[in-house]
Design brief:
about 210 residues; mainly alpha; Tetracycline Repressor, domain 2; about 70% helix; disordered N terminus
Length: about 210
């Protein structure tokens, strides 16, 4: 008796890596923006047909929100890892900003800036959930920097009068400048100089040198 092959299920089988598919979708959104990324482009990027993509991630907006959550979680982990090191404050801040710049302006590739600034900053005007995620992310990042700055003040790397909240906001402001200017095509050497001078100002190196 000849054994028949089992009937095939409709649609593409779930033979995919969810993390890889999510990362691929993020790259598409990062390159084209949320509004500019079509379902066809997402399907091609993730190598999934629409039914499979919907089944795995939901609609386009749900998929985008998942990429935001993934990016924010990764960014928060990277920041925490760098700031938890035993390095001096200036070294830690420099490593963070240089790591960020390497992501915003990858070697041999077009500049892409920060995912949050490139996509969420625009969509937050129209989408409450995106705005909430953006606000929460920025707040959590500032908290991590403020904690590190507090340790630096305790260790004598910053004066007792240092406004930790303001300095934490300044670190993120420099980061946002790098993201925006890298996407605008500002040369890497100029951005590297911004990192160096900004860290000096934040750490009070310029004041101590007088």
């Amino acid at each position: 008796m000849v054994q028949k092959d089992p009937p095939r299920a409709r649609g593409r089988p779930r033979a995919y890596d969810p993390d890889q598919a999510l990362a691929a979708a993020m790259q598409a959104f990062w390159r084209l923006g949320y509004a500019g990324t079509s379902l066809e482009e997402l399907s091609e990027a993730t190598d999934m047909n629409r039914p499979s993509m919907y089944a795995a991630f939901g609609d386009k907006r749900a998929l985008y929100l998942k990429t935001l959550d993934s990016y924010i979680e990764t960014a928060r982990g990277t920041i925490a890892r760098i700031l938890d090191s035993k390095a001096a404050l200036a070294e830690a801040l420099t490593e963070f900003l240089e790591t960020a710049l390497a992501s915003y302006l990858p070697e041999g590739e077009p500049p892409r800036g920060c995912y949050l600034i490139a996509t969420a900053a625009t969509e937050s005007m129209l989408d409450v959930e995106v705005r909430q995620r953006l606000q929460s992310a920025l707040s959590s990042f500032e908290t991590l920097f403020e904690q590190r700055l507090r340790r630096a003040r305790t260790a004598g790397e910053l004066p007792e009068s240092a406004d930790l909240a303001a300095l934490a906001s300044m670190v993120l402001a420099v980061n946002h400048t790098l993201a925006f200017r890298s996407r605008a095509g500002v040369p890497r050497a100029v951005l590297a100089a911004i990192i160096k001078s900004s860290v000096q100002v934040i750490c009070g190196a310029t004041d101590r040198a007088r």
